[in-house]
Structures are given as structure tokens and as C-alpha cells.
Design goal:
Blueprint: E1 2-3, H1 13-25, E2 30-34, H2 36-47, E3 57-62, H3 65-80, E4 81-87, E5 92-97, E6 100-106, E7 108-111, E8 120-123, H4 126-131, E9 141-143, E10 148-150, H5 155-161, E11 163-164, H6 171-174, H7 178-189, E12 192-193, H8 195-206, H9 223-239, H10 242-252, H11 260-263, H12 268-278, H13 282-287, H14 293-300, H15 304-314
Parallel strand pairs: 3-6, 11-12
Antiparallel strand pairs: 1-10, 2-3, 2-9, 4-5, 5-6, 7-8, 9-10
Length: about 325
């Protein structure tokens, strides 16, 4: 752990101080800023990466997020704390403090009962919560109470090397959608997978038990995994340089995660560029290269209107 005064452009220091004081008032042992804000601030400060802004802040609480939210309400009042929406089942609270969206989450630990299934989540420590994440560069935290940068997996080293490194050897088999996330971050940040992560990717794809071709038993493909795949693909096409991200997935040989025919589809670029010109949705246009596009679209649960458009395209 390294002491750090981390400046976040666009985030008033008074807001972070308010969070720190409220945490102390609520008896919270640890309150940490986590995720993309920490990664991007370090990239901006130490590596000259352009600051892309902070759409919201993710914070992890060792203790009870709702108790901290109550302390913030008491300190700040309704004018400054304009939104406070609690989700007790998930241990999270959505806030808007001084006009900036915040997500408070009680620290959690998780275990995957089987590859691709949804994880079983229990309350845990900040360290356990960081271990739940995808890459080392996303598993750093700034402790707002002590002012320390917490980097248990060497994220700072991998930022310097511009590498995406999975947290542990079962990261991809536990949740194969992390491959799509790797393509997203690789395209956005200009990072590549390190050798150990590439080996993990190759081993997972080689042993992939769910070919998801037409006629396969539905029990072979956990529905939750298909839903997570679609959500990650939506983010890829909506928020990222999608052509570069798809190129990464193609180069890594990772497209059998969705459908094996997509790995050898030589026409996807032309098809997607036509979709952009015509103002059509990109995900169904991409899925047109699958073995059974409509079956794949249904499995991924893309919107019904997009499924109808895909059917018209195929006809």
C-alpha cells in the first residue's frame, strides 16, 4: 500500500472529503474509490493518457453502505444529496452528491459454483471485493480514509507495461465474458493481453463446452452467461471503438464464445459499415454471420425489433 494524493479532474476535493468525514461519523472502517476512476486517474497523471471524464464514481464500503448513506444525508441535506436510492438485496445505494453520481456498495466476496454460472456473493473485505474484478488494472482502490493506494495485484506495473492481466488462473473459465471485456479495454486504452492471459484464453476456448450451435441442448449454455455476453456486446458496440475491439476478438480466436462461424466471417466489416451508413443496429448486423443468426439472437436475448430486422436481412 502506497500513500497517494490522487487528483480526479472534475471531482471536487470537497466531495471526497465529505465522503471521508461521513464514513468516520458512521464508524466505517474502510471506504475506497475503486474501478475505472482510479485506473484512469493514474493513466492520466503518470502516463499522459487523455482524461475522458468521470461519469460516476464507484465506492466500496467495509461495513454497511446504507449506514454511510444515512450519514451523508444527515451531513449534506437534500439540496446537496439530491438522490439516494437503496437496493438492500444487493447491498448497494445510488447517490447524487453535489451533482455527481455515486454508487456505494458493501464489500463482497464471490465464488463461482460452476464455469459460466452466476457467482454466489457474500459480504467480504475490500481485498476480497477487489479480487472479484476482471483485470489487475481494475483491481486498485484509493482508501479515502487513509489516503492509500491499494494495489494487491500489481496493477500499477501493468499500467506501465500497457498490459491487460487477468486476476487469477480461473478468471476466464469462471466468466468467459471477460474476453469481451478484454477486447473493449484493449480497444479503448490501446492495451494488449499479457502472455499468461493469452494462454488462459486459449485454454478456455479449446475446452469450451458450449458450442451453442443450433440443436445443442439448452442446458449446455447457462442462460445467465448468454445474458452477460449480450450486455458486454452492447457496451462494445455502443461505447468502444467497435471495429478494433472485434479485431482483437478475431485475432485472439475468441469468437467461438458467441458462434464458431463468426471466427471465420470475412464480411463482417463491410456488413457493419453498411449498417452504420444506413443507421441500423450493429449487433444484429454482426450476428448475421453466425451459423444460425436468429437462434443466436434469441439466445443472446437481443430486442425483438432487432430480431425482426435480422430476419428481414436474412430474407
Amino acid at each position: 500500500m502506497t500513500p497517494l494524493a490522487l487528483d480526479l479532474p472534475g471531482v471536487p476535493s470537497t466531495l471526497l472529503e465529505e465522503l471521508r468525514l461521513a464514513a468516520q461519523h458512521a464508524g466505517v472502517r474502510r471506504l475506497a474509490l475503486v474501478g475505472g476512476a482510479v485506473r484512469d486517474a493514474l493513466l492520466h497523471r503518470h502516463h499522459g493518457h487523455p482524461w475522458l471524464g468521470v461519469p460516476d464514481l464507484d465506492l466500496v464500503v467495509e461495513g454497511h453502505a446504507e449506514q454511510l448513506a444515512a450519514a451523508l444525508r444527515e451531513r449534506c441535506g437534500p439540496k446537496r444529496l439530491s438522490r439516494c436510492l437503496s437496493h438492500p438485496a444487493f447491498g448497494t445505494v445510488e447517490l447524487c452528491l453535489d451533482g455527481l453520481p455515486l454508487d456505494l456498495a458493501t464489500a463482497r466476496a464471490e465464488v463461482y459454483p460452476a464455469p459460466g454460472r452466476n457467482p454466489q456473493v457474500t459480504p467480504g473485505s475490500l481485498q476480497a471485493d477487489l479480487k472479484r474484478r476482471d483485470f489487475t488494472i481494475n483491481a486498485m482502490a484509493l482508501d479515502l480514509i487513509s489516503g492509500e493506494l491499494i494495489d494487491p495485484f500489481g496493477g500499477c506495473v501493468h499500467l506501465e507495461a500497457r498490459q491487460l492481466v487477468f486476476l487469477h488462473r480461473n478468471s476466464v473459465s469462471d466468466d468467459p465474458t471477460r474476453l469481451i471485456r478484454a477486447a473493449r479495454y484493449g480497444a479503448r486504452l490501446g492495451f494488449g493481453l499479457d502472455q499468461s492471459s493469452l494462454e488462459q484464453l486459449n485454454n478456455t476456448i479449446a475446452a469450451w463446452p458450449w458450442a451453442w450451435r443450433s440443436g445443442d441442448p439448452p442446458s449446455q449454455a447457462p442462460p445467465a452467461l448468454a445474458t452477460r455476453c449480450r450486455m458486454e456486446l452492447d457496451r462494445l458496440f455502443t461505447n468502444e471503438p467497435w471495429e478494433l475491439a472485434l479485431h482483437h476478438l478475431e485475432r485472439w480466436g475468441a469468437l467461438p464464445l458467441i458462434d464458431s462461424a463468426l471466427q471465420g466471417d470475412s464480411t463482417w466489416r463491410r456488413r457493419l459499415h453498411w449498417a452504420v451508413r444506413l443507421g441500423l443496429p450493429l449487433l444484429p448486423a454482426w450476428l448475421a454471420g453466425a451459423i444460425d443468426p436468429l437462434a443466436t439472437a434469441r439466445r443472446l436475448q437481443i430486442p425483438g425489433q432487432h430480431q425482426q430486422w435480422l430476419q428481414q436481412l436474412l430474407e
